[in-house]
Amino acid sequence: MRMLAGLIAPHPHTFTLIGDHSLTARPMERIRKPLGQMGAKIDLVDGHAPVTIFGGPLRAIDFTTPIPSAQVKTAVLFAGLQAEGTTSLSEAIRTRDHSEHALKAFGATLTRSGERLSIPGGQKLKAIDATVPGDISSAAFFLCAALLFPDANLVLDSLGMNPTRAALLDVIAALGGRIKMLTVEEHHGELIGAIQLSPGGVTPSGPFTISGALTAQVIDELPVLAAIAPYTANGLIIRDAQELRVKESDRIALVAKNLRAMGAEFTELPDGLEIAGGQSLHGAQIDSGSDHRIAMAFSIAALRASGDTEIHGAEAASISFPEFFTSLDALAQR
Questions:
Q1: What average pLDDT values come out for the chain (334 residues) when binned by 10 residues?
Q2: What is the set of active-site residues?
Q3: What's the gap between Cα 220 and its chain centre?
Q4: What would you measure as the largest C-alpha separation in the chain, in angstroms?
Q5: Whole-prediction pTM
Q6: Among candidates 217, 235, 234, which has minimal Cα distance to 226?
């Protein structure tokens, strides 16, 4: 919704973007500010969707993202592509750059100098034959599941290995995963490869800490990493993740609620969690909050728990991964 707003704002029509319950909970003020500076008029409902866009000619701006967000960055780039002048955007923490690679692949001129991106307006794009790799955020659930069982052996092919996303693999390795790169190819600036994962890697002597720029790079994977953290050897500390409180749900609060239900020991922080390792959890009634990542994260935690787990609102997984439970069932050995 955020990215689409930037794409359509330069067009002289009125658009209304409406989302489901979870999408309506996401803050949209962060795209209204830059697009408004460019000349678009955008109406929100208490800072959220429905989003009504009164489109028209836009002018270039020089914008600094106050919160690391690849979606806001992309909205500004899409709008800048069609604006008068050259739009510049700066981000203190580099976020996912799929849109940057895609724009270049489609023929756009886009330059980066350190933290600063620039895109001239009035450009035309050309069609391409694109390869879309597997989503590492979706693969994260299976990678985390493989960490939980000593005899696990997981191979994932055609996986997106973009450096702004593959930091997840560094976290998996720090939590005890042994990762072997099998193949790597480049398609339109995106790295696509196959990896093999098994447990038994070297772990740090204390809890592994995710903070700062690393938090921004694995923001979508944090719920499942937190869900399996009690089973890891030394636990996990998550900081600088206050953005999780304004996703489809307050993901920090929901993770805490469900870890507590499963008997985990941890400390909830305003911007994250401190979770001890070496724990045994039991099955429980899980509240997904209709959040797809919470539903999938705790289905992974449930694999290792004693007793049965029931996930309320498990159908939310279909928002991003309709085949999730079918795939998990096919991978699990009983």
A1: 97 95 88 97 96 97 93 97 98 91 97 95 96 94 96 96 92 96 95 96 91 92 98 97 89 98 98 97 97 97 97 95 96 81
A2: 220
A3: 3
A4: 62
A5: 0.88
A6: 235
